[in-house]
Design brief:
By secondary structure, the chain is mainly α. It contains nine helices and three strands. The longest helix is centred in the middle third of the chain and has 25 residues.
């Protein structure tokens, strides 16, 4: 466990994305201050930063909690996510910079390695970063906050995708890795239409697994 402000910030993000911290779970400011060797003020600063990014909620006189996931928010997620991903993708193809593409490729290699070793936590983190970079490529200040918020819930409700329980789920994960390669190629070739088609193909790969999270008994 890392110490200091940066350690607390990164650890909370990771724990929320990987569901080590449950939605709606309270965050103990005093305990975190002691654990990371910080006073209350920098812990509160980190909380405010994470609130702005959509990871936590801060309630007056009730402290901080991990962002909840209600049935209504999940319904809105399923309605909006692929549309935002497609719009972001078109802009990324138009506006990406070579250094961003290099970072995307490096992230993909880490994601591929994690998929081959079965490291579910690393897959969640690297997949999230892969799609964050595409958002950064878009350069759009209106869509990027929406993307970042969607990716938080996408990671949380998509956790079953990175823990395949049968051959079909394993094949879907293999195809997801291939889709990432195809995203990179579409960006490199400035092919917006191919990127958008891939968005919806990629969405369909994970949608069934995400629905297991929403209704595990179905």
């Amino acid at each position: 466990m890392k110490g200091g402000k940066s350690g607390l910030y990164e650890d909370l993000k990771r724990q929320i994305l990987t569901m080590e911290l449950d939605p709606d779970q309270d965050l103990d400011e005093a305990s975190l201050s002691e654990q990371y060797g910080l006073s209350r003020t920098p812990v509160r600063e980190i909380f405010r930063t994470l609130e702005g990014e959509g990871y936590i909620d801060i309630r007056a006189n009730r402290g901080a909690r991990v962002s909840p996931m209600s049935h209504e928010s999940l319904r809105q997620f399923f309605m909006v996510a692929p549309l935002v991903y497609a719009a972001i993708g078109r802009l990324a193809v138009q506006n990406f910079r070579p250094k961003q593409l290099d970072e995307l490729c490096a992230t993909q290699e880490r994601f591929r390695a994690a998929s081959q070793s079965g490291d579910a936590t690393a897959m969640v983190i690297e997949n999230n970063r892969f799609h964050e970079i595409i958002g950064e490529m878009s350069g759009n200040p209106y869509l990027q906050p929406s993307l970042r918020r969607l990716l938080i819930d996408h990671a949380r409700i998509g956790k079953t995708f990175f823990r395949p329980r049968n051959e079909d789920m394993q094949e879907r994960l293999r195809l997801a890795v291939e889709h990432h390669d195809a995203f990179i190629e579409a960006i490199r070739e400035h092919d917006e239409d191919r990127f958008v088609k891939l968005v919806f193909d990629h969405w369909e790969l994970s949608r069934a697994n995400m629905e297991l999270f929403v209704a595990p008994g179905s």
